[in-house]
What does this fold into?
Amino acid sequence: MTVSNRIGNGFRGFLASIGLGIAGTALAAAPAQHGGVEAGFTPEGYPYLGAASAPLLLEEWSDYQCPFCARHFQRTVPELLGRYVRAGKMKIVFRDFPIESLHPTSAVGHAAAACAGRQGAGAYWAMHDALFQQQGQWSRLADPQQALLVMAGALGLDAELAKACLAEGKEMARVEASVAEGQALGFNGTPMFRFKVTGTGASYSLSGAHPFERFAGIADALLAGEQPPEPPAPPAPELPFWAKPEGLAPDPARPGFNVAGDAYKGSPSAKVVVVEFEDFQCPACRTHALEVQPKIDAELVDTGKVLWVSKHLPLQSHPHAALAAAAAECAGDQGKYWSMHTLLYQSVEEWAVEEAESRLLGLAPRAGLEASAFGSCLSGRRALERVLRDLYDAQGVVDRVPRFAILGGEGPGTLTGGLSASQFVELLKGRLASSAGATPTGEPGSQPEGAATRP
It folds into this structure.
């Protein structure tokens, strides 16, 4: 069950009643201490670390289940605290931006942190730290609320107050309001940052988890009244594991899937490989799957000339696509990935509705699946984690669907959908002609680490 389903329609009405801001929140106003640093809440109710009057504000929009956000917390925040926050130069403000399509239970963690904040600013930041430090434990739970309450108790907080706060629902609504505000600002991933110079209006935005040196260069320039330096040139791209021969090799423990965990069809020894990133609610993906792919399969895939690999990139604008991708993975556990793959595109109008899970369960007989095993898989976490892995694999390589990474031969490393069947076949034939005797290779793009996205 998703966070939205747990919240229900009543929360949506409440959310509308409080607007998009969270001014007027009951959080404690008096500054406290956390790790030797002043901690408090802004007049709008947002938690901060550092001197309230610091000349530079760093606003972080984050998701407690985002691995890049956790990396920023572990590697960069300590250095920011040491050089800027403790020196009174910077105030860090944390904003909630859980991405439900990637992390369905993350919003519960954000609400738990806000509920901890009702017991003081120091309590908020203690919970904030614990959520990132224990991300690998609570993020895997279908319903993490009890684990979060145990976490709060272990921090010395009043777990009963936290439980009552979560049941009340106001903090969850404020988390959703924060997400809506971030979306209105154009944010589509985490972590996202905004530097603001107090009293001047100067600001600078930064996307993704970067090394401390990148933050320091921006902070020093803004504090000196200068323009931040241009970002450094990215390093030469390195082929990701899912595109390397060792990742593309068949997984002996899971027939029909490679070692990187992706479903494939065709010959693993083919000299040209196409890795497709797709979304089962994407109209262009559907057109490719139902109209273009059959001809490619008949001429090149089924004949062993091209290896075709499927990876998931469910877009935020398609709220049921991630669950559909998980359904395909569950079908794959029964050796029916490609049957379900086609069926999902053929029946998208049936399952892309509010009752998506029950509709997807209803597809099991039509896909030739054992219904009980399929249902257990779909209601669990394992299949969704495979989908999340693909989303993280896409970072720096793919930002839209359908997108194809073509490995082997000469030509473009990536291709956006839109080609006709004949055009795609001719393109691949050209790649085959230039790949004689070669090992499949390619050069997907690269960019700085981070930003789990709402594409």
Notes: The two ends are 22 Å apart (CA to CA). The longest helix spans residues 67-85.
